[in-house]
Design goal:
The chain has 269 residues and is mostly helical. The protein is 66% helix and 6% strand. Helix 1 packs antiparallel against helix 6 and helix 6 runs antiparallel to helix 7. The longest helix is centred in the C-terminal third of the chain and has 32 residues.
Length: 269
């Protein structure tokens, strides 16, 4: 169901779910900012940190997607750039995080605190957005399967009559679980800080590091049953990007651990 027909108006279901994802992420971020004491719920901080990175992320996702196929881009640059289809997750992640970082610095909010606060919202928003891919049948589904929950997309943007893995549903479920874990990790982080007990869990950036690792791992695994072409050492582009995300998360986690250890040593001395 790529479009909803409201009289003469066609409403893209992917765009509709993208808007729902932004709304869901807004409420989660607003609650996290409030519990961390960064911004009260009445402020406009959450709106800015959702609207600007999301819009920039959409542009980045589009540019990353068209640059993955330079031959097609050169053959039809206008059509490729302004097509309603084709968004790449990693391009959106890079551009969205860059806008998020810029906004945090512009508002003089500690960067790691802000990244921690935005992690659960980003995970859940991504999952809801994937339902838009499911409704549109835009080719983000998986390989053929005989499992009872296999689905076909005969009227999708990238149609198939075969029963395939509904990978957007898998990603939605995984994203919900990751968002819940990140929220719980944030709760432990704040509790440890309130009790003045330094440690890896309480360190700034630990929630964001977990976000990078878990979302990267989830995407890496689901790609094994996606229909994306292989390129890097038998991996898809998304799998290569996922490995970068996991590596970046591990580095942030290591730095958070080292910082927490230094704080503990200073207290003991």
């Amino acid at each position: 169901m790529p479009f909803l027909h409201l009289g003469p108006v066609l409403v893209p279901t992917y765009g509709l779910m993208l808007a729902v994802a932004m709304l869901v992420a807004y409420y989660v971020l607003r609650a996290d900012l409030a519990r961390r004491g960064i911004a009260p719920k009445e402020s406009s901080a959450a709106e800015a940190f959702i609207a600007i990175p999301c819009l920039v992320g959409i542009i980045g996702a589009k540019l990353y997607h068209v640059l993955e196929s330079p031959r097609e881009l050169l053959a039809d640059p206008f059509g490729q750039l302004f097509s309603r289809y084709g968004l790449a997750w990693f391009g959106g992640l890079i551009a969205g995080v860059a806008a998020f970082v810029w906004l945090a610095r512009h508002r003089r909010i500690p960067l790691l605190d802000m990244l921690d606060a935005g992690s659960a919202a980003a995970a859940l928003g991504y999952g809801v957005g994937r339902l838009g891919c499911l409704l549109a049948g835009d080719g983000d589904y998986g390989i053929p399967t005989s499992l009872p929950w296999g689905m076909s997309f005969p009227h999708g943007l990238v149609p198939t009559t075969e029963r395939v893995h509904p990978t957007p549903i898998y990603e939605f479920i995984g994203a919900c679980a990751i968002a819940w874990l990140l929220w719980r990790l944030g709760t432990r982080q704040l509790a440890r800080r309130a009790s003045s007990k330094p440690g890896t869990v309480s360190a700034k950036g630990s929630v964001f590091a977990a976000y990078l690792v878990m979302t990267g791992a989830a995407r890496f695994l689901v790609e094994f049953i996606r229909i994306n072409p292989r390129s890097f050492f038998g991996m898809t582009n998304a799998q290569a990007a996922s490995l970068l995300s996991i590596t970046a998360g591990a580095i942030v986690w290591w730095r958070a651990t080292r910082h927490a250890g230094a704080m503990r040593s200073n207290r003991v001395s």
